[in-house]
Amino acid sequence: MNERSMKEIYYADYLQLDRLLNSQLPESRRHGPEAHDEMLFIITHQAYEIWFKQILHELKSVLAAFTVTPLDEHSMGVIVARLERIIAIQKVLNQQIDVLETITPLDFLDFRDYLIPASGFQSVQFREIELRLGLGVHYQYPVTGRLRAEDVAYLREVAGEPGLFQQVDAWLARMPFLRFEGYDFWESYHEAVAAMLAKDRRSIEKNSLFSDAERNAQLAELDNTRRKFECLLDPAGFEQLQAQDLFHLRQTSVLSALFIQLYRDEPILHLPFRLLSHLMDIDELFTAWRGRHALMAQRMLGSKIGTGGSSGHEYLQQTVDKKRIFKDLFNLSTFLIPRSSLPPLPRRLKQSLDFHFTGEQSS
């Protein structure tokens, strides 16, 4: 054991508690009596920023792993584990809103005006999280706003790098699941879909509980579903699905993700399925966080303008669905078919399922 490793480390020094615990400086204190609840407001938001730092730490490692081709089993396991950690942190972030809501609207007014124009919009770390997840693919992301010039420059640099959405898109596109040694899975899938929809049509037509209007509405919706299935497998039709904002992933990526969803029970697809599921969890938890934040803003401010100059609750609520990043994966459920209808895979295809997707398919 070398001399450095034997040096005593004191708990407070290791955590730099002197700096950490003396970094709460209520603004109300500078203007008169300190507003009691401002301390909680500061500490909660500082805790958010510390957790954001950890999320970025995990997210950057995930992005780095995706840059290596092929993506091997070990890397896949690490990615899934780190996404699980991000999800666990997100749950804590959502729970912290419970703590913030112990501040009543009247108590918040004791110090609110001292905060103008500071607001959560100026959290550079949270904006970076959104960009590194890939929000810029779906949403015209305003990097400017009430940010310092150096922060704007940094975020614009981040915006120019591939986010997780783009990395997952490229990874899925490399998977060799579309055709295998003359076997076209998607032809078999199309036949299974046709049989499923024909069965649904017969069920609707024979249902004596429907009125004529209800039956016609059900059949019209079934025809709409059939058109979506047809568009999924047709390159020109798929562009229509993209125009309808159903997908931002490329067609080959969507088909690979659907294959993983359909055949998740294959042992080699367990980790890829968990990865896709975790991306949906992250999207869902950030959507819930934004939604709760919007409701909290309404609870605190009513219809007042936010400290950052936005329209408060209304602005936050409008961005909740717009900022969903992995909505493509949620929309895949439209194209699932029952396990009992899944085309059986050829024996050699089952044997060849591997994580080493190099983009080279068997001929």
UniProtKB/TrEMBL annotation:
Cofactor(s) needed: heme
Record keywords, A-Z: Dioxygenase, Heme, Iron, Metal-binding, Oxidoreductase, Tryptophan catabolism
Binding-site list for substrate: 41-45, 112, 307
Pathway: Amino-acid degradation; L-tryptophan degradation via kynurenine pathway; L-kynurenine from L-tryptophan: step 1/2
The enzyme's E.C. designation: 1.13.11.11
Keyword Metal-binding: yes
Catalytic activity: L-tryptophan + O2 = N-formyl-L-kynurenine
Keyword Metal-binding listed: yes
GO biological process: L-tryptophan catabolic process to acetyl-CoA; L-tryptophan catabolic process to kynurenine
Note on how the cofactor is bound: Binds 1 heme group per subunit.
Enzyme class: oxidoreductase
Binding site for heme: 293
Molecular function terms, GO-annotated: heme binding; L-tryptophan 2,3-dioxygenase activity; metal ion binding
Known role: Heme-dependent dioxygenase that catalyzes the oxidative cleavage of the L-tryptophan (L-Trp) pyrrole ring and converts L-tryptophan to N-formyl-L-kynurenine. Catalyzes the oxidative cleavage of the indole moiety.
Protein family: Belongs to the tryptophan 2,3-dioxygenase family.
Record text on subunit structure and interactions: Homotetramer.
The protein's name in its UniProt record: Tryptophan 2,3-dioxygenase
Lineage, highest ranks first: Bacteria, Pseudomonadati, Pseudomonadota, Gammaproteobacteria, Methylococcales
